Amino acid sequence: METALVAEFSDPQAEALPWERALEVIESAEMFWLSTVRREGRPHVAPLPAMWLDGRLHFCTGAHEQKAKNIEVNQDVALTTGTNAFRSGIDVVVEGPVARETGNDQLARLAALWMEKIGWHFTVGDGVFLDEGNPDHQAVVFALTPAKVLAFTKQPYSQTRYTF
Q1: What CA–CA distance (Å, rounded) separates 104 from 87?
Q2: Cα–Cα distances in angstroms (integers) from residue 26 to residues 13, 45, 151, in the given order
Q3: Of all helices (H) and strands (E), which one includes residue 68?
Q4: Which residues, at least 6 apart from 158, have a Cβ–Cβ distance to it below 8 Å?
Q5: pLDDT 10s digits, 23-71
Q6: What is the model's pTM?
Q7: Could you give the 3-state DSSP secondary structure of residue 108?
Q8: Contact between 115 and 121 (Cβ < 8 Å)
Q9: Superkingdom of this entry's organism (predicted)?
Q10: Cα gap 2→7, rounded to integer Å
Q11: CATH number given to 2-102+138-163
């Protein structure tokens, strides 16, 4: 991984944010905004929880939902998290391709994370999450492999780019 301060978009006194700090934001965040692109090119953005595990950021959705349909056509997505404050906090954007996560052992580890972090209880079906309250509802799980991560600090303002 390469870390670089983007001087053009940073205060002169700013320094690159260490990756460990950006990763803390990713790991502790409960909600992200998923950005995908529809077949005809229009954007689609939706809030959802995501979990960091084994160097990838995981999220789930119903196979019939718009975000899953968009990913069938274009696997490049962005997951964004941070704060809505102008003068404080750290915002992080994770960009890269996604792929289905279907291994039941890995899904079991992820289900435990969902439960621990936000109290959502999933059981693992055949390569999918099953909703305990609605066993007919299946959720497909995607893993985003970061290609680029951007972190934005506010005091001083900085932009740090991490490339993988």
Answers
A1: 43
A2: 25, 18, 10
A3: helix 66-73
A4: 5, 6, 9, 10, 11, 14, 15, 16, 17, 152
A5: 999 999 999 999 999 999 999 999 999 999 999 999 999 999 999 999 9
A6: 0.96
A7: helix
A8: yes
A9: Bacteria
A10: 15
A11: 2.30.110.10
Return the structure tokens found at 79: 């997951």
Q: Using one digit for the tens of pLDDT, what is the confidence trace for 126-149?
A: 999 998 777 678 999 999 999 999
What is the band of 8 on the pLDDT scale with cuts at 50, 70, 90? very high
- In this structure, are residues 29 and 99 in contact, taking their beta carbons and an 8 Å threshold? no
Residues 6+ apart with CB under 8 A from 117: 30, 49, 51
Burial class (CB in 10 A: 0-12, 13-18, 19+), 154: middle
Tokens of 154: 């506010």
Q: Is the pLDDT of residue 108 over 90?
A: yes
* Residue 104: Cβ within 10 Å count: 13
DSSP structure string for 114-149: HHHHH---EEE-SSSEEETTEEEEEEEEEEE--SEE
Alpha carbon distances (Å) from 152 to 7, 20, 74, 160: 12, 14, 26, 7
User: Is-contact 47 54, C-beta < 8 A?
Assistant: no
